Structures are given as C-alpha cells and as structure tokens.
Amino acid sequence: MTSSFRFLEDIALADSAFEARGDSPSELFAASARAVIETMVAPQTVSSTCTKAITRHDRSLEELLFDWLADIVYLKDAEGLVFQDVVCTVEKRQADGDWQLNGTLTGEPIDPARHELRADIKAITKHRYEVRQDNGGWIATVVMDI
Amino acid sequence: MNLQTHMTVNRITDQIWEIPASEKPGMLVPARIYATEKILTAMDRGVFEQVTNVACLPGIRRYALCMPDGHWGYGFPIGGVAAFDRDTGVISPGGVGYDINCGMRLIRTDLTLADVAPRLERLMTELFRRVPAGVGSKGFIRLNRPEFDEVMRKGARWCVERGYGWHHDLERIEEHGCIPGTDPSKVSDHAVERGISQLGTLGSGNHYLEVQVASDDRIFDKPTAAALGITGHDQIVVMVHCGSRGFGHQVASDYLKVFEKAMRRYGITVKDQQLACAPFRSPEGQDYFAAMNCAANSAFANRQVITHQIREAFSAVFERPAESLGMDIVYDVAHNIAKIERYAEGELVVHRKGSTRAFGPGRPELPEIYRQTGQPVICGGSMETGSYLLVGTDQAMQQTFGSTMHGSGRTMSRAQAKRSVRGEQLQKQMAQRGIIVKAVSMSGLAEEAGFAYKNISDVVEAVDAAGITRKVAELRPIGNIKG
User: Which residues of B touch A145 (CB under 8 A)?
Assistant: First the structure.
C-alpha cells in the first residue's frame, strides 16, 4: 500500500499544483491532504497538539476530494490551524452508494515563530482538476490558487 | 512573428492585436490584446486560449480584452477585461478571481528619503509588527457577525466611523470605499468564519506593503503628479497590495459551485469549467453580485485598517501625528471586480480581473480633486524593481471600457524561482541594494523574486503608447513587507 504526491510546475505559472497517487481512495485522499498541508507549512515544524475530525459523504469521489481539501484551507483561516499529518478512510457506502470520508487532521494553531510557513492557499480550484483510476491505482491532479 | 499560439492574430496598431471571431467556434466578438510586439511574443499560450474562451460568453459586448501584463489565469486570463449586457449577459466569478477586490492603495507623505533613511530599519520593523502577514494571519480588530455585516455593507466607511482613518480618505478610494448593492445574507457562514478575524492583514503570495521613493528624475508629468500629491524630491510614499483575504476567497469558491449547477439550468455551456457563469439577471447572478460586493467592501476595509496601522507606525517612528506627516491617500483601486458601468451600449457588467479601472478626466464617478487629471491608476511591479502611478484617459473610455493594466505579470513558476534563489540570499542581495525586506516566509520571498516577473516598465510603456493610461511617476522600493 503506497501513497505519494509531487508538485507540478507546468500547469500554473502564478500558483501551485500537484499530482497525488494512492493504491486506494483512502490513500489518495491522505496523499492529497499532505500536499495541501505542505504547500502552507513545513509539517516537521508543526506539533500535534490538536486534532480535527472531518466526516463527509458525496455521490462523486471527485467532489468529495475537492471538499476535503477545501476543508484544510478553511481550517487555516477560520481556526488558524496548520497540520502535521492526516489519517483517513474513504469507502463506498452500501446503503446509498455515496462515498464516505472519515478523516482526522493533527496539528496546532499557527505560530510564525516556530512554524516554517510557506504559501497562503486562497482556494482549491477546478482548473484541470481530475481524479482518475490508472492501473488499479488512483491519481488526482489539483491546482491551488496562491 | 513567433507567437505561442497557432491562432490568427492581426495587428491593428503597434499596441493592439486582434484575434478574429472566426478563429474559434462559439466566439461572439473578436478578442483584442494590448501589447507591444515584444510583450505579445512572450505571452503564454493560455492568454490566447482564455481570451478567446471569454469571447464566447453570452451577452459579451465589443471585444474580449487582455492587457499587456496578461498571463494565464483561472477561466479569464489575468489582465482580462470583458463587458456583458446587463439584461442579456452573464456574470462570472472566473472574471473576477478568487481574491475579490484585490487592489492597490498608495499613500503619500511629506517625508523625504533623507528623513527616512536613518530610521528605515526601525520603520520596517514597526510596520512588520503592526500589519500581520503570511499564512492565516489575524488582525487586531475583533468583530462579531453583526459588526462584520456592517463591514460588508459600508466597507472603508465603517473603518472611518470607527476611527481607523480620516473622513477625506473616502473620496480617494474607488467607489468611495463603499459599493452599494450588498446583501450579507447571500454570504455563507464559511466565508464569514474565514474572514471575520482577518481585517487589517496582508496575506501572502504576491501581496505586499512597500515603502517607496518618488525621485524627480522618475516623474514624467510634474503638474499631474503634483495634483495627485506626488511632489518628488525623493518623497516617501507607501504602497499596499492586498484584497479580501479568506472571506473573498470563500465567496468566490461558494459561487463557482452554485454557478456550475446554474449553468445546466440555464443551458449555458462554457469552454472551461472555471468560466462558470449565470445570467446577470438570474437569482444566482444577483446573489453572487450581492455577495461579491460584500467581499469588495471588506477588501476596501482591509486596506483602510492597514492604512491606519501604517499611519500609526510612521507616527511612532517619527514621533509626530500622521496628519502632520501629510499621510493622505493618493488613491485606492480594485483590480479584481465586476461592476455596473454605463457606456455607449448602455449599462454593462464590466469584469476586470488583473486589470484596473482607468476613467478619463471629467467622469462624474471621480472625486472633484481628480476630475481634471483623470483617475489615478496604481500598478505594482515586482518587489525588486519599481511601481508606477498612471492616470486614466478618454481613450480608455472609448477602447477598453475604461480599463488598463494592473502590474507586471509573472513569467516564471514559483518552483523555478525558488530553485534560482533562496529567500535568505535574496533578502541579503536586496539589502545590499538598499531595500530592507521583512518576510514571514523565506520560501514565499524567493517565489516573488524580481526575475520571476515581466519588466513592468515595458508593460507601462505599452499602455502609455496605446493611450489607455498616461504615466505620471515611477516609484522605487526601499522597504518591503511580504507574507
């Protein structure tokens, strides 16, 4: 089971983009969240003094991922939090066929004295936004407005 | 001419280039790009694709336009201008951008470089302390929801009523810092929660606060400069570039989702999902317009609170009240906004995204003090080069829906800039050149290096030669605060 991400340079000149991969939707969501986190802060400089639980469901896996990443941007502004890591599960519900996300972000309130802060993400965008399956794995392309 | 597009691009003048409406299926009007040949050949492919996509939107009038600082953006190119019929046309969040009413403010002073140089380090430290910047930064003003609703309705006027500014500041702000037609009930709780504690903060990315010098040899039109309060003799001025922060970003994100669904209902198809739009007269269009105006007013308020903090910092360092330092606002302009304006075709919904209103002399929207000169236009360059003060012209009214450029425009990716220089190294190099930089993020600083941007002087020369603005003064940086 593996997950990873890499930042892409040739998509958004003034902004930031990444491609995330995972063997499962759960891993894809975790890798994508880590890319968003690392765009804003060096995670190794963040302690784990608080956790935020996020549960969501959606018929569309693409929309669910989009909203999950937007939640991390929201928490940065609304609650002043940056994160160190994430665990999440994403599974298809038997009852209604929706995708169910149960995620937990660990981090702490922003402290410019200790945290190596990077870019302030304005929004997750739909520009070239894509979630697809490839050779049994899952891949997402995401562009963030900086 | 070797362009980064296969489209037909016809020369209209040395600064105006036209892509005919026949070039792409669905184009309703031609696209026009304002640029010199040098700038046009360097423009990325995205500009040509996006400006012609905009030309396909329902109700567009005359041309889809792009200014010489244009580059790829979301939906509309940055530097994009498009006007739509108020009754039959659309409104698009992609034509405004995520940072609603991102804009520029210029504040003059009676101080000179000789006064400031000995205290510059202390001044920049004081400004850095008083104007929060960087990821998730919070301001000093604590608001509850009803108070934030008032900020949405009143904009900069709210600040002046609370003592964060002077009464005559308001006439020196586009729309007097208070756009009518707001409705806070059209704004989501998420948007309020993202923005309610951010009043008076800069943000990050290309946003900045800069202390600059107006030297005699860089003033191109002395009478106009004097009318704008720029007297030269190494005069110190302060420039601010920022917008509506998390509040505006969330309003844009919320309504892009609303419009994706609304387009299906109204049978509108677009070439790019980020061009999601709705008829201006539709409930969705009206809701977005009201929410966008709320965000626009919050941006005017944001820059007003920052102005208050700048005046406090100068007052503390120079041990004199800001009034006695002559710290009047020169002007404040929005460069990400949609507004109702009247032209020969009637009332139009003019979208400016990375483009500045540039009304010519005599327009009734201008305050009395600038009715003769034309509207001041503030264009920010990179942190290492210079910025410009221009004025609007009659020609802009006739050709570009009273619009012009907004800045220099990137030419290099953020990652490439970071590979080329380290933030600490750049900070040191700039200090050697007499520019003191205070930054929250060193990687963010490297991303904003001067070499990552077009030469702003080339861009200014293009709009000056095209006649859609006249250059008044170039302003050289000596201190910069970055997020």
Answer: 74, 98-99, 249
